[in-house]
């Protein structure tokens, strides 16, 4: 019989409610929640606790918020007014086999897990999680395009910058609605693959020649590629939806000056489909917990 795993969830956002529900279905997991005291729903068999009451020495896994901890060790807790600070002394109390899950990690968290040699799993940097998350991300981009334009997606000119995990799903989703999709990349392999899949393609250095036709620009490249020359050529009623991680790939100040609506759309899975996003995280976490 599988030994029961003791798992603490410390802070989190709306995605963590379905994550808790999914993990709680697993009889081999004993959950303890920190920072969920303002959640209206209750979970049978799940212990609500405080950071002071939690015993790190007994844990097999810790699930931190997607944002991890800040430079002073504080974990974001949307459903609590408690201040959840995880100091280096707190991390010292974890057993060395304890897994630490986060979405992303700063240097403070990286240094903290090194103290006892705990394995840190950065979920948002995993290919499988990123691909699953690209589905609600693409749907969220479509939602924003519908909300902030006065034309149909069908037959609109959509430019997708980048053809990685998110770019591929986003281009496919817009194409499925009848948009005329142009894929922009500097990677020749990606350009060849996009061409093979029936998209209009354009090298990044050449996109300025076509961008005046754009109605919706979706950027997934984490570099300043939607710059002043590109924005100067765009129609003022076009929309830019930037999906790249902070600080994004768009000159937002110049876009505003030109009257172009530019949205830095971070965390779309948690906004448009928190249930799906939470379940994706739960399934991946389960795999790690029971394979360790």
Task: Describe what this molecule looks like in 3D.
With 292 residues, the protein is an alpha/beta fold. The chain folds into two domains: 5-125, Rossmann fold (3-Layer(aba) Sandwich); 133-270, NAD(P)-binding Rossmann-like Domain (Rossmann fold), CATH 3.40.50. The protein is 34% helix and 19% strand. It has helices spanning 16-24, 88-92, 107-114, 127-147, 165-176, 188-196, 228-233, 252-258, 268-272, 274-291, and strands spanning 5-10, 29-34, 47-49, 61-63, 74-75, 84-85, 99-102, 120-122, 157-161, 180-185, 200-203, 216-219, 239-242, 261-264. The strands form three sheets. The chain has a six-stranded parallel beta sheet with strand order 3-2-1-4-7-8, with helices on one face. Strands 11-10-9-12-13-14 form a six-stranded parallel beta sheet, with helices on both faces. A two-stranded antiparallel ribbon has the order 5-6. It is elongated, with a radius of gyration of 22 Å. It starts with a strand and ends with a helix. The mean pLDDT is 94.
């Amino acid at each position: 019989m599988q030994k029961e795993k003791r798992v603490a969830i410390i802070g989190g956002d709306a995605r963590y409610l379905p994550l808790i529900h999914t993990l709680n279905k697993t009889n081999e997991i004993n959950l303890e929640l920190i920072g969920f005291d303002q959640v209206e729903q209750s979970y049978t068999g799940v212990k609500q606790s405080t950071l002071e009451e939690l015993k790190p020495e007994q844990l097999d896994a810790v699930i931190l918020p997607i944002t991890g901890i800040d430079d002073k060790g504080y974990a974001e807790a949307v459903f609590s007014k408690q201040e959840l600070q995880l100091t280096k002394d707190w991390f010292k109390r974890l057993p060395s086999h304890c897994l630490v899950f986060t979405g992303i990690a700063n240097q403070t968290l990286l240094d903290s897990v090194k103290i006892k040699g705990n394995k840190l799993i950065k979920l948002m940097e995993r290919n499988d999680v990123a691909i699953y998350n690209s589905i609600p991300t693409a749907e969220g981009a479509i939602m924003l395009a519908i909300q902030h334009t006065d034309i149909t997606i069908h037959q609109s000119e959509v430019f997708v910058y980048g053809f990685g995990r998110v770019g591929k799903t986003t281009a496919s989703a817009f194409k499925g609605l009848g948009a005329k999709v142009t894929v922009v990349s500097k990677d020749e392999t990606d350009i060849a693959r996009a061409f093979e899949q029936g998209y209009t393609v354009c090298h990044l250095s050449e996109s300025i020649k076509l961008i005046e036709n754009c109605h919706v620009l979706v950027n997934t490249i984490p570099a300043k590629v939607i710059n002043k020359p590109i924005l100067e050529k765009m129609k003022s009623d076009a929309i830019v939806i930037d999906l790249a991680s902070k600080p994004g790939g768009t000159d937002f100040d110049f876009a505003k000056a030109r009257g172009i609506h530019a949205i830095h759309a971070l965390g779309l899975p948690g906004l448009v489909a928190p249930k799906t996003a939470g379940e994706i995280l739960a399934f991946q976490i389960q795999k790690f917990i029971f394979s360790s």
